[in-house]
């Protein structure tokens, strides 16, 4: 079969066939009486083999080695192709994401594009200082896409940079809430933690609703961060989780502060005191836990808390009794000062 016929039937151009010939990949084994190169059925089969290997991403040099080297081991090359393909996909995905981020800002001119590119590069820098500076300047100078800020926030490991990124996100209002909500469902615990911390710093109703939903999250860390934020916002649903934190000795001081903020509402003060007393009455509660619960009563106003403290001042556990007695003295002093 002549080269033109091979080209038509195989889909490989005559120019490429000549290139294969010059490289020694596939050379026509026959000649016509007129001296034209003629491909045999075996030559054509080799052409299809070459095209099949090229479709996997092999270079022509690698194709030649695969077909002609008897010691060639395909598994190593395939593994290498997998690695190279993953790297290429990652690079293309990063480029696509960056283009989406730039497009989202609707740049007016190339100067805007260059500023955004520089800022995105800084957010991805290996230097924590550059990332922090980019986070702060994202609010002051350039309108960085909220998607980029969320992405950077959920992946940031440096606490100072993370704080700057959360602050920058908070300035964007509720624009990033949907993406942060997705972060709450991440398979990675650290991402879920960063998501709830970021939501906690956004002071609007949408964030509060997300935090309330987070109280039922399967991740206990997410539930605890949500409860701390909701306590400061005066959301009563956080009370059970906050009390559990005191019992479990997990951020118990912060949990007690959040309960104190909730107890400033007279309608909640007695409810909180009652729950704390119920935990104190549990016979299985350890001495150290009872002391923490007693301390939590200190900033809970109202008759229920005062009566509970009076009872606890005679507790069999001397440490609990002393703690309750001390708190009662402070409350009496504060009430006396107020009357004066």
Automatic annotation (TrEMBL):
State the superkingdom: Bacteria
Which keywords label this protein?
DNA-binding
Please indicate if the UniProt record lists DNA-binding as a keyword.
Answer: yes
Domain HTH merR-type residues, every copy = 1-69
Which SUPFAM superfamilies is this protein grouped with? ARM repeat, Putative DNA-binding domain
Q: Which Pfam families match?
A: HEAT_2, MerR_1
**UniProt entry tagged with the keyword DNA-binding:** yes
InterPro entries to which the protein is assigned, alphabetical: ARM-like, ARM-type_fold, DNA-bd_dom_put_sf, MerR-type_HTH_dom, MerR_fam, PBS_lyase_HEAT
UniProt protein name: HEAT repeat domain-containing protein
Q: Which organism is this entry from?
A: Micromonospora sonneratiae
């Amino acid at each position: 079969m002549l080269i033109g016929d091979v080209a038509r039937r195989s889909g490989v151009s005559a120019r490429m066939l000549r290139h294969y010939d010059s490289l020694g990949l596939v050379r026509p084994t026959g000649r016509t009486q007129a001296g034209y190169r003629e491909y045999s059925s075996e030559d054509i089969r080799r052409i299809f083999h070459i095209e099949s290997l090229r479709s996997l991403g092999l270079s022509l040099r690698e194709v030649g080695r695969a077909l002609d080297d008897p010691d060639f081991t395909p598994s190593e090359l395939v593994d290498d192709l997998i690695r190279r393909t993953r790297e290429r996909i990652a690079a293309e995905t990063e480029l696509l994401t960056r283009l989406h981020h730039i497009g989202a800002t609707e740049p007016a001119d190339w100067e805007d594009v260059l500023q955004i590119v520089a800022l995105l590069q800084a957010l991805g820098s290996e230097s924590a200082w550059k990332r922090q500076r980019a986070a702060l300047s994202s609010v002051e100078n350039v309108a960085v896409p909220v998607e980029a800020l969320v992405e950077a926030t959920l992946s940031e490991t440096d606490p100072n940079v993370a704080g700057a990124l959360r602050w920058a996100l908070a300035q964007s209002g509720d624009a990033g809430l949907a993406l942060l909500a997705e972060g709450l469902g991440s398979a990675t615990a650290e991402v879920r933690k960063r998501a709830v911390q970021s939501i906690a710093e956004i002071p609007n109703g949408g964030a509060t609703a997300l935090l309330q939903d987070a109280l039922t999250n399967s991740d206990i860390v997410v539930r605890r961060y949500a409860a701390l934020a909701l306590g400061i916002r005066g959301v009563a649903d956080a009370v059970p989780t906050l009390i559990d934190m005191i019992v479990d000795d997990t951020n118990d001081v912060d949990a007690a502060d959040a309960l104190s903020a909730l107890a400033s509402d007279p309608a909640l003060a007695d409810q909180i005191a009652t729950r704390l007393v119920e935990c104190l009455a549990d016979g299985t509660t350890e001495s150290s836990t009872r002391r923490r619960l007693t301390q939590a009563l200190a900033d809970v106003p109202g008759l229920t808390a005062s009566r509970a403290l009076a009872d606890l001042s005679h507790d069999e556990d001397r440490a609990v009794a002393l703690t309750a007695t001390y708190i009662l003295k402070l409350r009496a002093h504060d009430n006396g000062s107020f009357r004066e």
